[in-house]
Amino acid sequence: MDKVKELYLPSDEAAAAKAAAKDYKSWDLTPRQVCDVEMLLDGSFAPLEGFLTEADYDGVCASMRLASGALWPMPVTLDVTEAFAGEVETGETIALRDQEGVLIALMEVSDIWTPDKSAEAAMVFGADDDRHPAVHYLKYTAGPVYLGGRLKGIEAPVHYDFRHHRHTPNELRALFDKWGWHRVVAFQTRNPLHRAHMELTMRAAQEVQANLLIHPVVGMTKPGDVDHFTRVRCYEAILNNYPEQTTTMSLLHLAMRMGGPREALWHAMIRKNYGCTHFIVGRDHAGPGNNAKGEPFYGPYDAQELVREHEDEVGIKMVPFKMMVYSQDHAQYVPMDEVGEDETVLNISGTELRRRLQVGLDIPEWFSPPEVIKELRRTHPPRHQQGFTVFFTGLSGSGKSTIANALMVKLMEMGDRPVTLLDGDIVRKNLSSELTFSKEHRDLNIRRIGFVAGEITKNGGVALCAPIAPYAATRREVRSMIEQYGAFCEIHVATPLEICEERDRKGLYAKARAGIIKQFTGIDDPYEEPEAPELKIDTVKVSPDEAAHQVILKLESLGLIR
Ligand code: PPS
User: Fold this and answer.
1) Which atom in ligand 1 lies closest to the alpha carbon of residue 525?
2) Are 273 and 186 in a shared domain?
3) Residues 240 and 148 in one domain
4) Whose CA is nearest to atom 18 of ligand 1?
């Protein structure tokens, strides 16, 4: 089989180029850019030979065509900061490095321009709507200036995980050749495979008399997706269920955009580069969910239409599939449009699956093989076994530490999970001893607490935080940081200032009033009350023991403890 063009320099040239690169300006690639560069260098994105130039970009956005006229549906651009763009001139070679500083490629910068991102969003993704993950990324994560130019590969980004499942296009082509696989149908996925997918992929392979390539994306997928470590273990668990010698799996380091129809066409072109002859496009392929009006961004079969229009030009045949549902009457999966009128069909949505995992409910065998569910349960235990954070906020002397201490003891008495208390004073002594009480330092202090609590939560522990945390925006930031890993329960210890001042257990209010301590919260520094905490405790009316009990009840109602 032919080879696709790779962009790596031969090893002797690479060594010399690497030595010369120490004098070049360096751009540290973002995680998405690392994926893009790897796909460019190994030929996954052929015919591209670098990041799009301005003329290519204009053509791709407007009509899915490079300046040469070749089809290319997705902008692959190197976005940088204004500061970096200001240092670079066209004609210059720059070094592209990974996050650790390892040199991956050199780029001859041919174009530098500031794109109109709203126009790009509208043309490429069909909507300038922040709810679209790619539009959100484009506007809030990607840098404002684009650089275009050819790449010369020095060293492929290293992957330490699942190496035996990773292949470049040419490696996979060579394997297909060796195995005598002349017809290969690829299945793109960013989800664990359940029975519906297995059925669909087997039917597709039979229908077109081809071998099957399960080709999951492990670069970047939709935020909130099951992590690729879990997914790959799920795929491994079911590979043997496919008829022998028919099916293989390879991991694709693509950074998805969730761009619906254009993305589906892009996926098909990439699979063509990997030597596949057929490509499965299902319902709502690479769909990004709903827009601001609650409507889907794309029609369920728009992707199929666009791929069909271009399949001859790309040189890969589409295998279209309708959604598969389980027919209880026939005890088998069938495409939705083949279901008889009185047939009972069963389906478990993604949301329902997540709920069942969270609560620890049964997931039937008709839906997914037990070995897949076992893998999912390992990394998605029910909520009462997951880590979580309880974040107390309130004025100094409001009773945060006292309640947090009482709660810690109660949770330790239950003995379910390890508990760590990140009390304001303790943190200031150990983690944040150099910080003052300026806004900037308070924010830094809270972010540090959030980071540690996030790590504890991720690893299945309980983090109890009890800082003042006077700023709402910073609390929100910490919440979203932690909610990636587990539940975040904000508790406002709402003791009024007069009472805190009256108690003045540490004598700090007196000092603050006397001007001896400056920037004291509530006296000459602000406290922004939480608008929607999970729980608000009025310590004037309840004892610390009762307050801790209120928190326990809240945690129970959230399903975090039993
Ligand atoms: S913050 O804003 O969240 O970073 O504050 P925090 O780290 O929780 O504060 C810890 C304790 O520092 C004492 N302290 C002050 N608090 C507020 N303002 C000023 N200027 C200040 N100086 C010292 C105060 O006792 C805080 O402890 P708690 O437990 O809240 O009383």
Assistant:
1) 18
2) yes
3) no
4) 520
